[in-house]
Design a protein that fits this description.
heterodimer, B: mainly alpha, MetI-like fold, two-stranded antiparallel sheet, 2 strands
């Protein structure tokens, strides 16, 4: 306390200003988030009703209707993307974790790191040039492919880290008991790494849920029921975008409703990821 | 090992290699397809494409400059605002706030990162833009109107709005990573600084932040990469006008939003190719930015390990 009393007032003031300034910045970021969330909840809640969730969009100028086809379309596209990303991303992660030594593996790792931040619109262009242009036909499948590419870097990194997190002794034990290489990985290492892999998967799904840019020229959107991914499909976030930039009040209202559903979905995925990670076995 | 096991083992390794090869192939394909698609624009316009500002689908003349300008300026606003707010918030959460405040606020800020960009865009268009148009922009113009960047008509949507919305979107990236880096600074450094008589604030600004500097810069560059590539939110609030104007209130256009708006309407081959070339520019910029961010953070990790 002697030091405290000798402190020059200017230095003490500096410290105080520092705390106030940094506290203000935290409050600003958190406050804006609460404001945004609150606004979406208030506006969105007013728009959500049974018709909104179960009906098709109405033609321009007719009020009412819903986004049921968009919700179903999102589920199909995201589901397909997940089905494709799990084997490619998961197995690449296993390969890097188990056999990944040397310059080649280091390069693949760097690729996954750098491509985690790739603009989604560029991925959309890629999906367009290889899956839409050759067939002259927009499709839900091309959107699912774009989402797969967006999920892959994250999946590769998280599954590699998850498997590296399993102590090598566990795998050596399995090998010593006579299990072959693949057996030790499939039956021993993967189950131990599962909670972290699931976390990574849920976060990857959360990342593409609400991704809109690549859909503009892959899924394209649709006013009708479409469950065949070979055709242009409606998608919830795409509908939000279209409704938001339209000049109709009723569509603006529906955009807020869609935004609330989207936020809830992302929230559930993130909470799920946190729960999955907390299931991780404690290491002694 | 039995024969069956040997075969299964072979197959398993084959599957692993196959998946990895597929992953690399997809990434390579992405780059090749973008180059291939934009080849016509590259050969027609050459390097001039980057420095001309005409964008006329009717005459078939295309130049990327207005979009590069819009992307660079909106991202610059975003990264300046976001790095100041994000780093200061990280300092507060890591050094000053008691856990009872730090934990929920950190959680909230991390949640901010999970909100889909289309929701940010919606909010930006209907809430942020009107607020800026009615209060913040006129204020800036009244007191700083002598600066050319704050002159001209106020529309609500434009470069400044897009920059601020992008800032809000990337603040969590800066804040969350910086906070982790600050927490990771060894306590001995702080204790040594206190022992020399420094206050907490002096310790933070002169010891802790310099120690985490490389990583924090890496976090900011990473966030910059996100702002550069962000499409939907920027498209909704930037005004979508392919013109270069010095005023931050003026509507503008980014590389990604012109692709989003015009790609499905592109009628001629050269138009489509020019849009793909914009995508290629965006891709290359983001690889450079993300790559350098990773290298910065990696170099910091190496140094802390060496200690």
């Amino acid at each position: 306390m002697i030091a405290q009393s000798r402190l020059e007032p200017s230095r003490r003031a500096q410290g105080l200003i520092g705390v106030v300034l940094t506290g203000f910045c935290s409050a600003l970021a958190a406050g804006l988030l609460i404001m945004l969330l609150g606004y979406v909840i208030v506006q969105g809640w007013g728009a959500i009703n049974p018709a909104f969730l179960t009906q098709l969009p109405r033609p321009v100028g007719v009020s009412g209707g819903g986004v049921a086809n968009g919700i179903v379309g999102s589920a199909i596209i995201i589901g397909l993307a997940t089905l494709m990303a799990i084997p490619i991303g998961g197995l690449t992660g296993v390969y890097l974790a188990v056999y990944g030594r040397g310059l080649g593996a280091e390069f693949i790792r760097f690729l996954a790191e750098v491509l985690g931040g790739i603009p989604s619109i560029a991925v959309g262009l890629f999906a367009y040039t290889i899956l839409v242009q050759p067939f002259s036909h927009f499709s839900g499948f091309s959107a699912a492919f774009a989402f797969t590419v967006l999920m892959l870097p994250l999946m590769v990194r998280t599954s590699e880290e998850a498997i590296r997190g399993v102590p090598i002794a566990i795998r050596e034990g399995a090998l010593a008991l006579g299990l072959p290489d693949y057996g030790s990985i499939i039956h021993v290492v993967l189950p131990a790494a599962r909670p972290l892999i699931v976390t990574g998967l849920l976060l990857a799904i959360a990342r593409i849920t609400g991704e809109t840019a690549p859909l503009l020229f892959t899924a394209f959107g649709s006013q009708f029921w479409e469950v065949n991914p070979g055709n242009p499909m409606a998608e919830l976030s795409l509908q939000i975008f279209t409704y938001a930039i339209s000049p109709y009040d009723d569509w603006h209202r529906q955009a807020w409703g869609g935004a609330l559903i989207l936020i809830l979905a992302v929230l559930v995925l993130n909470v799920g990821a946190r729960i999955a990670i907390s299931r991780r076995p404690r290491r002694s | 090992m039995t024969l069956g096991q040997a075969i299964a083992d072979r197959f398993f390794r084959f599957a692993l290699r196959g998946a990895t090869a597929l992953f690399v192939l997809i990434i390579a394909g992405l780059f090749i397809e973008l180059v291939h698609g934009s080849w016509q624009a590259i050969t027609t316009f050459g390097p001039k494409f980057l420095i001309t500002s005409e964008w006329n689908p009717v005459t078939g003349k295309f130049g990327a400059l207005p979009f590069i300008y819009g992307t660079v300026v909106s991202s610059a606003i975003a990264i300046i605002v976001a790095s100041v707010v994000g780093i200061l918030a990280a300092v507060f959460l890591a050094e000053f706030a008691p856990p009872v405040i730090a934990r929920p606020v950190s959680f909230l800020i991390e949640l901010l990162a999970a909100i889909p960009s289309v929701v940010f865009g919606l909010w930006g268009l209907f809430v942020l833009a009107p607020i800026l148009a009615s209060t913040v922009d006129p204020f800036l113009q009244r007191f700083f109107g002598f600066l050319p960047i704050f002159s001209g008509a106020i529309y609500g949507i434009g470069l400044l709005t897009a920059g601020l919305l992008l800032a809000l979107m990337i603040v969590p990236t800066v804040a969350a990573i910086s906070r982790d880096l600050i927490v990771a600074v060894p306590n001995e450094l702080r204790e040594a600084s206190y022992a020399l008589g420094a206050t907490r604030w002096e310790t933070v600004t002169r010891v802790v932040l310099p120690a985490a500097r490389a990583g924090i810069i890496g976090a900011c560059v990473l966030a910059l990469g996100r702002a550069l590539g962000e499409t939907i939110a920027a498209t909704m609030v930037i005004g979508n006008r392919p013109a270069i104007s010095i005023s931050l209130f003026a509507p503008s256009y980014t590389l990604s939003s012109v692709i989003a708006n015009e790609f499905t309407e592109a009628t001629s081959a050269i138009y489509l190719s020019s849009l793909l070339a914009l995508g290629l520019i965006l891709f290359v910029i983001s690889i450079i930015v993300n790559g350098s961010a990773r290298l910065l953070m990696w170099s910091m990790l190496q140094r802390t390990r060496a200690r």
